[in-house]
Design a protein that fits this description.
79% helix; 159 residues; mainly alpha
């Protein structure tokens, strides 16, 4: 029952950031994909994936959906290597945002949007830089929010 409650909370947090109007790529996806396994364990990675899939039902699927979902899995698995302290976690989230940029834009290129050439691959990554800015900004903001909530909970429990 606890797993279900936590999974529902993950869904609500992800859905809230995806359904409210926002700039492109400005969601809690990377931060949640990173922090859920760090604080709750890797057994909650499927909850993040399922939450993402459920919100995609309403927002629509696209040609790079599997690349995006794959990133959620990769980020969740990588996050355990960055879990020791605040600096490592924040560094890890930024590293994972970069991984998201590399993998998902490779997915865009592999679907032929920019041609199957080295020039097309370069153009694809170049055209995605503005979206990457929003990804980095949202990752930092949501990571700091999660870290603050975690620290507050820790202080409340300790005292």
């Amino acid at each position: 029952m606890n797993y279900l409650k936590i999974s529902l909370g993950i869904f609500v947090a992800l859905a809230a950031s995806r359904f409210v109007p926002h700039p492109p790529n400005f969601t809690s996806l990377i931060a949640l994909s990173f922090y859920v396994p760090v604080f709750l364990g890797i057994r909650f990675i499927p909850a993040v994936l399922l939450s993402f899939a459920l919100t995609d039902i309403f927002l629509g699927f696209h040609n790079t959906t599997l690349f995006t979902w794959g990133c959620v899995l990769v980020i969740g698995l990588i996050s355990t290597y960055f879990s020791k302290n605040l600096i490592q976690r924040l560094t890890g989230t930024l590293f994972c945002a970069f991984i998201f940029y590399i993998i998902t834009n490779f997915g865009v290129w592999s679907n032929g949007y920019y041609g199957y050439t080295l020039s097309g691959l370069f153009t694809c990554y170049l055209m995605a830089i503005p979206f990457f800015g929003y990804t980095m900004l949202s990752t930092v903001i949501f990571s700091m929010l999660i870290e603050t909530l975690y620290k507050f909970k820790y202080l409340v429990i300790k005292y």
